Amino acid sequence: FFTSLQSTSTFTLSHTHITQTMADGAGRSGSSGNAAGAAAERRQRRQNLADKAVRTVAIVGGTHGNETNGVFLAKHFLQQPQLVQRETFTTRVLLANVAAIGRNPTEARRYVDTDLNRCFLLKDLAAGESKTIEQKRALEIDRELGPKSSETPATDLIIDLHNTTANTGVALMMSPYDDLAHEIGAYLQTLDPEVRIVEWGRSDDWALLPTIARSGFTFEVGACPWSCLVGKWYQRSRSLLLAALDYLDRRNKTFFATSAAAEPAAAGSLATRTVNVFERAYNVGYPADPTTNELAAMIHPDLDQRDFTPLQEGSPLFLRLDGSTIPFSRRDPALAIPETDTEPLCPFFLNEAAYYEKGTAFMLAHAVSRSYRALE
After folding, report:
1. Considering only CA atoms, which of 198, 191, 190, 208 is closest in space to residue 171?
2. Among 7, 109, 167, 238, which is most exposed with the fewest C-beta within 10 angstroms?
Protein backbone atom coordinates (compact mmCIF):
# COMPACT_ATOMS: atom_id res chain seq x y z
CA PHE A 1 0.00 0.00 0.00
CA PHE A 2 2.64 2.53 0.98
CA THR A 3 4.73 2.52 -2.14
CA SER A 4 6.68 5.20 -3.94
CA LEU A 5 5.34 7.13 -6.90
CA GLN A 6 7.93 5.65 -9.22
CA SER A 7 9.29 2.19 -9.76
CA THR A 8 12.71 3.48 -10.80
CA SER A 9 15.58 2.88 -8.38
CA THR A 10 13.23 2.19 -5.45
CA PHE A 11 14.68 1.09 -2.11
CA THR A 12 12.49 -0.54 0.54
CA LEU A 13 13.59 0.98 3.82
CA SER A 14 13.20 0.30 7.51
CA HIS A 15 10.94 3.28 8.11
CA THR A 16 10.25 4.85 4.75
CA HIS A 17 10.65 4.54 1.01
CA ILE A 18 12.73 6.89 -1.05
CA THR A 19 12.74 6.92 -4.81
CA GLN A 20 15.38 8.43 -7.00
CA THR A 21 13.02 9.67 -9.64
CA MET A 22 12.92 11.87 -12.66
CA ALA A 23 9.35 13.03 -12.26
CA ASP A 24 5.93 12.15 -10.97
CA GLY A 25 4.15 10.99 -14.08
CA ALA A 26 7.40 10.42 -15.97
CA GLY A 27 7.71 7.83 -18.68
CA ARG A 28 10.67 6.16 -20.29
CA SER A 29 11.18 5.39 -23.94
CA GLY A 30 13.94 2.89 -23.22
CA SER A 31 17.46 2.70 -21.89
CA SER A 32 19.35 2.64 -25.15
CA GLY A 33 21.40 5.62 -26.23
CA ASN A 34 19.60 5.64 -29.58
CA ALA A 35 16.19 5.94 -27.91
CA ALA A 36 17.40 8.68 -25.59
CA GLY A 37 18.96 10.53 -28.51
CA ALA A 38 15.79 10.28 -30.56
CA ALA A 39 13.72 11.56 -27.64
CA ALA A 40 16.08 14.49 -27.15
CA GLU A 41 15.97 15.35 -30.85
CA ARG A 42 12.18 15.25 -30.90
CA ARG A 43 12.00 17.39 -27.76
CA GLN A 44 14.31 19.95 -29.33
CA ARG A 45 12.05 20.19 -32.37
CA ARG A 46 8.91 20.63 -30.27
CA GLN A 47 10.10 22.65 -27.26
CA ASN A 48 11.86 25.28 -29.32
CA LEU A 49 9.75 28.35 -28.63
CA ALA A 50 12.59 30.40 -27.16
CA ASP A 51 12.90 32.28 -30.44
CA LYS A 52 9.36 31.72 -31.72
CA ALA A 53 6.14 33.69 -31.41
CA VAL A 54 3.32 32.28 -29.30
CA ARG A 55 0.15 32.11 -31.35
CA THR A 56 -2.11 29.78 -29.35
CA VAL A 57 -2.54 29.44 -25.58
CA ALA A 58 -4.80 27.09 -23.63
CA ILE A 59 -5.82 27.63 -20.01
CA VAL A 60 -7.05 24.40 -18.42
CA GLY A 61 -8.91 23.96 -15.14
CA GLY A 62 -10.26 20.88 -13.44
CA THR A 63 -7.64 18.35 -14.47
CA HIS A 64 -8.34 17.22 -10.93
CA GLY A 65 -12.02 17.78 -10.29
CA ASN A 66 -11.75 18.73 -6.61
CA GLU A 67 -9.07 21.39 -7.10
CA THR A 68 -11.74 24.02 -7.00
CA ASN A 69 -9.74 27.24 -7.31
CA GLY A 70 -8.56 26.22 -10.78
CA VAL A 71 -12.03 25.03 -11.78
CA PHE A 72 -13.68 28.32 -10.89
CA LEU A 73 -10.93 30.43 -12.40
CA ALA A 74 -11.38 28.57 -15.68
CA LYS A 75 -15.16 29.02 -15.43
CA HIS A 76 -14.63 32.74 -14.83
CA PHE A 77 -12.59 33.00 -18.03
CA LEU A 78 -15.15 30.93 -19.94
CA GLN A 79 -17.83 33.40 -18.89
CA GLN A 80 -15.64 36.42 -19.73
CA PRO A 81 -13.37 35.25 -22.58
CA GLN A 82 -12.30 38.80 -23.42
CA LEU A 83 -10.15 38.79 -20.27
CA VAL A 84 -7.74 36.23 -21.72
CA GLN A 85 -7.68 37.21 -25.39
CA ARG A 86 -4.73 39.22 -26.62
CA GLU A 87 -3.95 40.98 -29.88
CA THR A 88 -1.15 38.67 -30.99
CA PHE A 89 -2.48 35.25 -29.96
CA THR A 90 -5.68 33.35 -29.30
CA THR A 91 -6.55 31.77 -25.97
CA ARG A 92 -8.75 28.75 -25.35
CA VAL A 93 -10.18 27.90 -21.94
CA LEU A 94 -11.02 24.30 -21.16
CA LEU A 95 -12.46 22.29 -18.27
CA ALA A 96 -10.57 19.01 -18.33
CA ASN A 97 -12.16 16.31 -16.16
CA VAL A 98 -15.78 17.41 -16.37
CA ALA A 99 -17.05 14.11 -14.94
CA ALA A 100 -14.95 14.59 -11.79
CA ILE A 101 -15.87 18.27 -11.37
CA GLY A 102 -19.56 17.49 -10.93
CA ARG A 103 -22.38 20.00 -10.67
CA ASN A 104 -20.95 21.76 -7.61
CA PRO A 105 -17.90 21.50 -5.31
CA THR A 106 -19.62 19.12 -2.90
CA GLU A 107 -19.85 16.53 -5.70
CA ALA A 108 -16.28 17.07 -6.92
CA ARG A 109 -13.60 14.39 -6.71
CA ARG A 110 -10.03 14.16 -7.89
CA TYR A 111 -10.92 11.65 -10.61
CA VAL A 112 -13.54 9.05 -11.44
CA ASP A 113 -11.55 5.99 -12.52
CA THR A 114 -7.92 7.05 -12.74
CA ASP A 115 -5.80 10.19 -12.47
CA LEU A 116 -6.31 12.19 -15.67
CA ASN A 117 -2.94 13.86 -15.17
CA ARG A 118 -1.22 10.50 -15.60
CA CYS A 119 -2.89 9.71 -18.95
CA PHE A 120 -0.77 11.78 -21.35
CA LEU A 121 2.28 9.65 -22.05
CA LEU A 122 2.90 9.63 -25.78
CA LYS A 123 2.81 5.83 -25.93
CA ASP A 124 -0.53 5.72 -24.09
CA LEU A 125 -2.11 8.31 -26.37
CA ALA A 126 -0.79 6.43 -29.40
CA ALA A 127 -2.28 3.18 -28.09
CA GLY A 128 -5.69 4.88 -28.01
CA GLU A 129 -7.05 2.95 -25.03
CA SER A 130 -10.30 4.35 -23.66
CA LYS A 131 -11.29 1.86 -20.96
CA THR A 132 -11.70 4.55 -18.30
CA ILE A 133 -13.43 7.92 -18.28
CA GLU A 134 -10.07 9.64 -17.89
CA GLN A 135 -8.38 7.71 -20.71
CA LYS A 136 -11.23 8.67 -23.02
CA ARG A 137 -11.05 12.31 -21.95
CA ALA A 138 -7.27 12.36 -22.41
CA LEU A 139 -7.69 11.30 -26.04
CA GLU A 140 -10.30 14.04 -26.55
CA ILE A 141 -8.05 16.70 -25.03
CA ASP A 142 -5.10 15.50 -27.08
CA ARG A 143 -7.17 15.86 -30.26
CA GLU A 144 -8.32 19.36 -29.23
CA LEU A 145 -5.03 20.82 -28.01
CA GLY A 146 -2.42 18.62 -29.70
CA PRO A 147 -1.87 16.10 -30.84
CA LYS A 148 1.15 15.39 -28.69
CA SER A 149 2.53 13.19 -31.45
CA SER A 150 2.83 16.22 -33.75
CA GLU A 151 5.84 18.50 -33.91
CA THR A 152 3.37 21.32 -34.58
CA PRO A 153 0.44 20.73 -32.21
CA ALA A 154 -2.56 23.04 -32.25
CA THR A 155 -1.45 24.68 -28.99
CA ASP A 156 1.84 26.47 -28.34
CA LEU A 157 1.43 26.90 -24.57
CA ILE A 158 -0.75 25.19 -21.97
CA ILE A 159 -1.21 26.62 -18.47
CA ASP A 160 -2.81 23.91 -16.31
CA LEU A 161 -4.43 25.28 -13.13
CA HIS A 162 -4.07 23.17 -9.98
CA ASN A 163 -4.22 23.56 -6.24
CA THR A 164 -2.70 21.49 -3.47
CA THR A 165 -3.35 20.89 0.21
CA ALA A 166 0.39 21.41 0.78
CA ASN A 167 1.79 24.84 1.60
CA THR A 168 3.61 25.34 -1.70
CA GLY A 169 2.54 28.93 -2.35
CA VAL A 170 2.62 29.62 -6.08
CA ALA A 171 4.70 26.89 -7.72
CA LEU A 172 5.10 26.72 -11.48
CA MET A 173 6.02 23.16 -12.42
CA MET A 174 7.62 22.50 -15.79
CA SER A 175 9.98 20.52 -17.94
CA PRO A 176 13.67 21.29 -17.33
CA TYR A 177 14.07 21.62 -21.10
CA ASP A 178 11.30 24.20 -21.65
CA ASP A 179 12.93 27.60 -22.25
CA LEU A 180 9.69 29.52 -22.72
CA ALA A 181 8.12 28.19 -19.51
CA HIS A 182 11.25 29.22 -17.58
CA GLU A 183 11.14 32.64 -19.23
CA ILE A 184 7.53 33.16 -18.13
CA GLY A 185 8.33 31.92 -14.63
CA ALA A 186 11.30 34.25 -14.35
CA TYR A 187 9.13 37.19 -15.40
CA LEU A 188 6.43 36.35 -12.86
CA GLN A 189 9.11 36.23 -10.16
CA THR A 190 9.85 39.89 -10.90
CA LEU A 191 6.22 40.65 -10.02
CA ASP A 192 5.99 38.28 -7.08
CA PRO A 193 9.31 37.12 -5.57
CA GLU A 194 7.51 34.28 -3.76
CA VAL A 195 6.71 32.53 -7.05
CA ARG A 196 8.72 29.31 -7.28
CA ILE A 197 9.80 27.37 -10.33
CA VAL A 198 9.87 23.59 -9.86
CA GLU A 199 11.18 21.25 -12.52
CA TRP A 200 9.41 17.93 -13.04
CA GLY A 201 12.71 16.12 -13.44
CA ARG A 202 14.58 14.80 -16.45
CA SER A 203 12.76 12.23 -18.56
CA ASP A 204 12.05 11.26 -22.15
CA ASP A 205 8.34 11.92 -21.57
CA TRP A 206 5.83 12.93 -18.94
CA ALA A 207 2.24 11.80 -18.45
CA LEU A 208 1.13 15.34 -17.64
CA LEU A 209 -1.46 17.38 -19.54
CA PRO A 210 0.75 20.43 -20.33
CA THR A 211 3.08 18.20 -22.36
CA ILE A 212 0.53 18.07 -25.18
CA ALA A 213 1.62 21.54 -26.26
CA ARG A 214 5.03 22.73 -27.40
CA SER A 215 5.44 24.50 -24.05
CA GLY A 216 3.52 24.43 -20.82
CA PHE A 217 3.48 24.28 -17.07
CA THR A 218 1.37 23.36 -14.08
CA PHE A 219 0.22 26.44 -12.15
CA GLU A 220 0.06 25.03 -8.61
CA VAL A 221 -1.14 27.01 -5.58
CA GLY A 222 -1.68 26.09 -1.96
CA ALA A 223 -2.47 25.37 0.69
CA CYS A 224 -6.07 24.86 -0.47
CA PRO A 225 -8.43 22.26 1.01
CA TRP A 226 -10.15 19.98 -1.49
CA SER A 227 -13.40 21.31 -2.93
CA CYS A 228 -12.90 24.75 -1.37
CA LEU A 229 -12.40 28.18 -2.90
CA VAL A 230 -9.61 30.10 -1.17
CA GLY A 231 -9.83 33.79 -2.03
CA LYS A 232 -6.16 34.56 -1.39
CA TRP A 233 -4.98 31.98 -3.92
CA TYR A 234 -7.79 32.62 -6.39
CA GLN A 235 -6.95 36.31 -6.50
CA ARG A 236 -3.21 35.72 -6.75
CA SER A 237 -3.62 33.10 -9.48
CA ARG A 238 -5.88 35.34 -11.52
CA SER A 239 -3.50 38.29 -11.27
CA LEU A 240 -0.38 36.30 -12.20
CA LEU A 241 -2.09 34.45 -15.01
CA LEU A 242 -3.32 37.65 -16.64
CA ALA A 243 0.17 39.14 -16.20
CA ALA A 244 1.66 36.12 -17.99
CA LEU A 245 -0.69 36.66 -20.94
CA ASP A 246 0.23 40.36 -21.04
CA TYR A 247 3.90 39.43 -21.04
CA LEU A 248 3.49 37.02 -23.96
CA ASP A 249 1.61 39.67 -25.91
CA ARG A 250 4.38 42.23 -25.35
CA ARG A 251 6.99 39.62 -26.24
CA ASN A 252 5.24 38.90 -29.53
CA LYS A 253 4.98 42.59 -30.38
CA THR A 254 8.59 43.30 -29.45
CA PHE A 255 10.31 40.49 -31.28
CA PHE A 256 8.00 39.33 -34.06
CA ALA A 257 6.16 40.71 -37.03
CA THR A 258 2.51 41.35 -36.31
CA SER A 259 1.49 39.26 -39.31
CA ALA A 260 -0.45 36.04 -38.83
CA ALA A 261 2.45 33.97 -40.20
CA ALA A 262 2.83 30.72 -38.29
CA GLU A 263 6.57 31.17 -37.73
CA PRO A 264 7.58 34.83 -38.20
CA ALA A 265 11.27 35.62 -37.91
CA ALA A 266 12.47 36.97 -34.58
CA ALA A 267 13.78 40.54 -34.49
CA GLY A 268 16.06 39.85 -31.54
CA SER A 269 18.79 37.33 -30.78
CA LEU A 270 18.87 34.52 -28.25
CA ALA A 271 20.74 35.08 -25.01
CA THR A 272 21.36 32.80 -22.06
CA ARG A 273 19.79 33.81 -18.76
CA THR A 274 19.60 32.11 -15.38
CA VAL A 275 16.81 31.61 -12.88
CA ASN A 276 16.63 29.88 -9.50
CA VAL A 277 14.62 26.68 -9.58
CA PHE A 278 13.87 23.64 -7.46
CA GLU A 279 15.08 20.54 -9.27
CA ARG A 280 13.10 17.52 -8.19
CA ALA A 281 15.25 14.64 -6.98
CA TYR A 282 13.44 12.12 -4.76
CA ASN A 283 10.07 10.97 -3.44
CA VAL A 284 9.84 9.96 0.22
CA GLY A 285 7.17 7.55 1.38
CA TYR A 286 5.39 7.30 4.70
CA PRO A 287 6.72 4.89 7.30
CA ALA A 288 4.60 1.75 7.25
CA ASP A 289 3.94 -0.94 9.84
CA PRO A 290 5.92 -3.98 8.67
CA THR A 291 3.13 -6.35 9.69
CA THR A 292 0.00 -4.57 8.48
CA ASN A 293 1.63 -2.16 5.99
CA GLU A 294 -0.58 0.56 7.45
CA LEU A 295 0.52 4.12 8.15
CA ALA A 296 2.96 4.15 11.09
CA ALA A 297 3.89 7.82 11.22
CA MET A 298 2.93 11.28 9.98
CA ILE A 299 4.75 14.42 8.89
CA HIS A 300 6.26 15.93 12.02
CA PRO A 301 4.48 19.15 13.07
CA ASP A 302 7.81 21.00 13.07
CA LEU A 303 8.17 20.17 9.36
CA ASP A 304 4.55 20.34 8.20
CA GLN A 305 3.65 23.45 6.17
CA ARG A 306 7.35 24.29 5.66
CA ASP A 307 7.52 23.44 1.97
CA PHE A 308 10.79 24.35 0.19
CA THR A 309 12.64 24.97 3.48
CA PRO A 310 16.01 23.14 3.41
CA LEU A 311 16.20 20.16 5.75
CA GLN A 312 18.77 20.31 8.53
CA GLU A 313 20.59 17.30 9.93
CA GLY A 314 18.75 15.99 12.97
CA SER A 315 15.61 18.03 12.37
CA PRO A 316 12.30 16.21 12.94
CA LEU A 317 11.00 14.40 9.86
CA PHE A 318 8.22 12.07 10.98
CA LEU A 319 6.15 11.68 14.14
CA ARG A 320 5.41 8.05 15.04
CA LEU A 321 2.02 7.09 16.43
CA ASP A 322 3.60 6.60 19.86
CA GLY A 323 4.81 10.22 19.83
CA SER A 324 8.49 9.51 19.13
CA THR A 325 10.37 11.34 16.38
CA ILE A 326 12.17 10.10 13.29
CA PRO A 327 14.87 12.71 12.55
CA PHE A 328 16.36 13.55 9.19
CA SER A 329 19.86 12.34 8.44
CA ARG A 330 21.04 12.29 4.85
CA ARG A 331 23.62 9.66 5.82
CA ASP A 332 21.07 7.37 7.43
CA PRO A 333 21.52 4.14 5.44
CA ALA A 334 17.76 3.64 5.56
CA LEU A 335 17.25 6.70 3.36
CA ALA A 336 19.79 5.56 0.77
CA ILE A 337 20.62 9.07 -0.38
CA PRO A 338 23.77 8.69 -2.48
CA GLU A 339 26.94 9.83 -0.75
CA THR A 340 27.70 11.91 -3.81
CA ASP A 341 24.61 14.01 -3.13
CA THR A 342 25.84 16.66 -0.70
CA GLU A 343 23.54 19.50 -1.77
CA PRO A 344 20.80 20.82 0.53
CA LEU A 345 17.48 19.04 0.11
CA CYS A 346 14.19 20.96 0.15
CA PRO A 347 10.93 19.09 0.83
CA PHE A 348 7.72 20.06 -0.94
CA PHE A 349 4.21 18.68 -1.34
CA LEU A 350 4.44 18.01 2.38
CA ASN A 351 1.37 16.10 3.57
CA GLU A 352 -0.38 16.46 0.21
CA ALA A 353 -3.73 14.73 0.68
CA ALA A 354 -3.86 13.33 -2.86
CA TYR A 355 -0.60 11.45 -2.35
CA TYR A 356 -1.76 9.37 0.61
CA GLU A 357 -3.15 6.83 -1.85
CA LYS A 358 0.34 6.60 -3.37
CA GLY A 359 2.03 6.36 0.03
CA THR A 360 4.05 9.52 -0.66
CA ALA A 361 4.81 11.79 2.28
CA PHE A 362 6.67 14.48 0.33
CA MET A 363 9.17 15.11 -2.43
CA LEU A 364 12.71 16.41 -2.20
CA ALA A 365 14.36 18.92 -4.50
CA HIS A 366 17.71 20.61 -4.95
CA ALA A 367 17.74 24.40 -5.17
CA VAL A 368 19.82 25.20 -8.25
CA SER A 369 20.42 27.93 -10.80
CA ARG A 370 19.07 26.96 -14.23
CA SER A 371 20.11 28.41 -17.57
CA TYR A 372 17.49 29.07 -20.22
CA ARG A 373 17.41 30.85 -23.56
CA ALA A 374 15.37 33.98 -24.22
CA LEU A 375 15.27 36.74 -26.81
CA GLU A 376 16.76 40.13 -26.16
Report:
1. 198
2. 7
